[in-house]
Design brief:
By secondary structure, the protein is mostly beta strands. Helix content is 3%, strand content 32%. The chain starts with 6 loop residues before the first strand and ends with a helix. The model has no long low-confidence stretch (mean pLDDT 94).
């Protein structure tokens, strides 16, 4: 079910029993898996893969090349209630001052059955483990797992874990991918590609 006012890019596939609400924008070359729900006003960039049974609420922006595995749930309100304090009227579901926005940056992966808390930022090429409950921002390239999710390592753009390299005298702590040999360094508490670090020096 695709409501009026939805924009869908070329070569995007939307599978059975998906509901896409009004005013949502979906980029090109995406896949929206069956029985997923995309709320109104959601922004999805190109080359995004959303598997089955995913719930994407209002206030979520998903950047280019993101992978969202089956059963992921996004949230957007820290203190939700169904009714007024008098329990005499349902509260509207429209966004209000309590609605928080979440951004999933380019290349990130969110594992199956993860829950993403409201108002968070999932960093570039970060990887959230399956079943994790994310309650704080996830840095670029971080692997975050658990309940609550914590950084347990770092991932390459190719998806493989990064391995620490011996620290050279005066040099920054460095990481290397065992699969593609790409190298990364720490700039403070942030991991960046080695080439990017050199261009910023």
């Amino acid at each position: 079910m695709v409501e009026p006012g939805v924009t869908i890019g070329r070569n995007t596939a939307i599978w059975d029993n998906v509901h896409v609400r009004h005013s949502t924008r979906i980029g090109a070359n995406c896949i929206i898996g069956e029985k997923s729900y995309i709320a109104y006003g959601v922004r999805i960039a190109d080359f995004v893969k959303i598997n089955a049974f995913v719930y994407v609420c209002t206030g979520v922006t998903i950047e280019r090349g993101v992978m969202i595995a089956a059963g992921v749930v996004f949230t957007n309100d820290r203190f939700p209630r169904a009714t007024t304090p008098q329990l005499d009227r349902l509260l509207p579901s429209d966004p209000n001052e309590d609605t928080l926005h979440t951004r999933v940056s380019e290349g990130a992966t969110i594992g199956a059955a993860a829950t993403i808390g409201p108002g968070l930022h999932i960093g570039r090429f970060a990887m959230v483990g399956m079943g994790s409950v994310v309650t704080r921002d996830v840095p670029d390239f971080a692997i975050a797992c658990g309940n609550p999710a914590r950084t347990v390592g770092y991932a390459c753009v190719c998806g493989q874990p990064l391995v620490p390299l011996p620290v050279t005298s005066g040099g920054p702590a460095a990481l290397r991918c065992g699969a593609c040999s790409a190298e990364y360094v720490f700039r403070g508490a942030t991991v960046v590609e080695a080439g990017v670090a050199q261009s910023l020096a």
